[in-house]
Specification:
two-stranded antiparallel sheet; single chain; 169 residues; mainly alpha
Length: 169
């Protein structure tokens, strides 16, 4: 039986990471029971009338629609543009979690960030194409800045701002 796929355009670093994460070949077969697989099960519909079945375009990755007894991809094989956008955001979030898990502890020990980014890329099957390392570094920097902001807010909440409690005793 042929595999029925949806096609998703994504940045180079994310495409390479996703292919590596799911065995290194295309089309990508998502892990059954994963959030992305369940999302496809709930979001794919019958091909609307008058809509041509999509063909893979340049820069798109093929992702197999998982087969469930009650949700056959031969029938339910259309994902709307909004659905594709949601799936892409889920995959980007998975990437950010993986990046954070790898880098946030190691970087605190004083290792050079560029070297760590290249090591992460090597371990995750991401080849440098002139923009990947810079993009990944910017993603990590934004996450780190957000984390620091949250930590600063938490520490401000724990520091008393009034001395009124001292005069009550």
């Amino acid at each position: 039986m042929s595999q029925i796929c949806i096609y998703l355009k994504m940045p180079s670093y994310l495409r390479q990471w996703l292919i590596h994460r799911h065995g290194g070949s295309q089309p990508i077969s998502l892990v059954r029971g994963s959030a992305e697989s369940d999302f496809l099960k709930k979001s794919t519909i019958k091909l609307p009338e008058g809509v041509m079945p999509p063909r893979q375009q340049e820069g798109e990755i093929a992702i197999c629609i998982p087969h469930y007894k009650c949700h056959d991809p031969r029938t339910y094989n259309y994902l709307s543009a909004n659905g594709k956008s949601c799936l892409l955001e889920m995959l980007k979030n998975d990437f950010r979690v993986d990046l954070w898990d790898y880098l946030h502890d190691i970087e605190r020990y004083g290792n050079e960030l560029n070297g760590l980014i290249y090591q992460y890329m090597e371990l995750r099957g991401i080849k440098e194409d002139g923009t990947c390392s810079d993009t990944i570094k910017k993603i990590y920097q934004r996450m780190k800045n957000s984390y620091r902001t949250i930590q600063a807010r938490k520490s401000k909440k724990n520091v008393p701002t009034s001395t009124a409690f001292l005069s009550e005793s």
